[in-house]
Amino acid sequence: MPVSPDLPASDAPPPGQGIAIAAESLYLINLLLLPGPAFLALLGLFFRYRRDAPPLARIHLQQTLSASLWAGVLLIVANLLIVVLGGYDSGWTWVVAILYFTTAHTTLVFFGIFGLARAMAGQPYRYPLVGNLWS
Amino acid sequence: MQLQYKSQAVAKPYFIAAIGLFVGQILFGLILGLQYVVGDLLFPAIPFNIARMVHTNLLIVWLLFGFMGAAYYLVPEEAETELHSPLLAHLMFWIFLVAGALTIVGYLMVPYASLADMTGNNILATMGREFLEQPLLTKIGIVVVALAFLYNIGMTILKGRKTALSLILLTGLVGLAVLFLFAFYNPANLVKDKYFWWWVVHLWVEGVWELIMAAILGFVLLKITGVDREVIEKWLYVIITMALVTGIIGTGHHYYWIGAPGYWQWWGGIFSAMEPLPFFAMTVFCFNMVNRRRREHPNKAATLWALGTGVMAFLGAGVWGFLHTLAPVNYYTHGTQITAAHGHLAFFGAYVMVVLTIISYAMPMLRGREANPERAQVLEMWAFWLMTVSMVFITLFLTGAGILQVWLQRVIPDPQEFMVVQDQLALFYWLRWIAGAVFSTGLVVYLYSFFAKDKPQTAEVGAAQPAAS
Any CB–CB contact under 8 A between A88 and chain B? Predict the structure, then answer.
């Protein structure tokens, strides 16, 4: 199979791309750098644009907000698990914390990376599980 | 289909040697994995320390073969000119291969201390340090090969087009060669020894190798996606800047507990906490380029390897690196199976996968076709998933072993001795070995994919046949 001829490229960004990128960025910043304030900013962005934003922006806003809320729920569940397994001084704290960090948290970060890459390409993205269950 | 430049063909033996040595590395990995739980397996023929040395040295050598092959393949295409001297490239290939093979045979056949005596370690003592165990003669051979290689690549770039991709690659390769010179500096003071040892080991894998990786990934993505070169170059500038800014001072995360000044705990902690950034950017870069692709390249397997490299490098180098990079955490985890978990996933995700990416892209071209037959690609993608998923499990099992090891050996009020703890990690080691066996299966499938052909289409009896033209 030969290489396909170059597809036509459009230089104009699709409507709503800026908001979509901002939403994905805030989602990632909330997970990686500034938990809390970045989520509040995302929440602000969501309520500011949820009705009148172009479809591309809306889907990224909905998905990132849904995934952020799920991330919060998972964090609470991880902490409850630690408490149930003997409290923060128990050896299980590290087992749960490290497993949570390397599996759940990292998966959420990867979703954000994929979402950001799609937003930067002007394409929609639906988060597996944590996006679908909310919307 | 012909190569754009005939001299690109010198990459082929480098790639074949790389894959051959990769197989050797995995075989010794399997032996090592079993020795963790069956302590006297193959003793005294292949003691644990020798098997480990062969496993890690083979890794380094085959990756170097891969990098050289990648450079010989991509530089003529980037420079738009034939390689300066294909003959020199062939000559260096054989010198490097024979020297490497003799070194491994030496490790296996001669006691290490005798090997040191036989190879001039008394003249300049360079042996006996992790990853840099090679005899003096081999180290000198590596320098000669590296210089000839850089001369060849450098002259090719000088006479041809200079692109950001080839210059980033060249910078990485020069850095690789220069930093290797610290392998010859072996001060008697143990603190200084470790201090400068990291200038080779850390500044390779968390510094200049990232440049090589970025250049190779950039080249493959440029070819398979058709995205504008300017876009790819801008991404690469960001990635390599972050790699160098964080990686160089991030060396400090190795200086926490070796006798270096205390300020390294802050410098090392802050900068190495930022080290996931270039890998994060690389993942976004890979997916962004594929999402914005302007052509459908028939080599689907190469695209998968490229995307996989981004993801797994971020996971292994970024996430598992960050896990134990801060001084208060590293105080407990230093030198445990947590380190082994990080080492396995980071090396696989970043460097093994990027070499397999360029092999996946270039090897079909070197064999005279745009892409491998459909069936070969399906097999290669199976190999991708088998190796990648099993490596994730190897990492998870080693992480589990590491958590338990840290707890029993360093946290509980009455800490247990190293070997007592090792016995209690046996379950994790068995599980790791099973995952390693699956990885080996993936490697066999990968090897087989090179020989797989599409099955001939069989027409049903009575079905309409196309008219001969």
Answer: no
Query: Is B228 in a helix, a strand, or coil?
Result: coil
Residues of A in contact with B1 (CB under 8 A): none
Do the domain assignments include residue B456?
no
Number of H helices, E strands in chain B: 19, 0
Q: Is the CB of A85 inside 8 Å of chain B's CB atoms?
A: no
CATH number at residue B16: 1.20.120
Q: What's the domain count of chain B? A: 1
Instruction: List the single residue in A6, A95, A117 with the smallest CB-CB distance to B288.
Output: A117
- Whole-number Å distance between alpha carbons of B9 and B77: 12
Contact B246, B274 (CB under 8 A): yes
> Does some domain include residue B149?
yes
Count CB-CB contacts under 10 A for residue B128: 13
Write down the residue that tokens 């960001």 correspond to. B238
Question: Does the beta carbon of A114 lie under 8 angstroms from any beta carbon of chain B?
Answer: yes
| Best CA proximity match to B438, nearest among B377, B378, B381, B392 | B392
Nearest CA in chain B to A8: B294
**Nearest Cβ partner of B399 from A1, A102, A114?**
A102
Whether B435 is covered by a domain: the verdict is: no
Query: Do residues B228 and B289 touch, judged by C-beta distance below 8 A?
Result: no
Q: Which residues are CB-neighbours of A40 under 8 A, at least 6 positions away? A: none
Considering only the beta carbons, identify the residue of B311, B399, B406 that sits closest to A110: B311
Chain A interface disruption, residue of B309, B403, B406, most A CBs within 10 A: B403
- Look at the pTM and tell me if it is higher than 0.90: yes
Residue that is written with structure tokens 């190795």 in the block: B254
Q: ipTM, 2 decimals? A: 0.84
In this complex, the residue of A2, A110, A120 whose CB is nearest that of residue B370 is A2
Q: What is the pLDDT of residues A38-94, one digit of tens each?
A: 999 999 999 999 889 999 999 999 999 999 999 999 999 999 999 999 899 888 888
Contact yes or no for A117 and B399 at CB 8 A: no
The torsion angles phi and psi of B46, rounded to 5 degrees, stand at: -130, 90
CB contacts < 8 A, A to B, total: 71
Domain that holds residue B33: 1-122+129-162
Q: Residue A32: its chain B contacts at CB < 8 A?
A: 280
Which domain covers residue A40, as residue numbers?
A: 17-120
- Tens digit of each residue's pLDDT (9 = 90 or more) over B304-358: 999 999 999 999 999 999 999 999 999 999 999 999 999 999 999 999 999 999 9
Residue B249 covered by a domain? no
Count of domains for chain A: 1
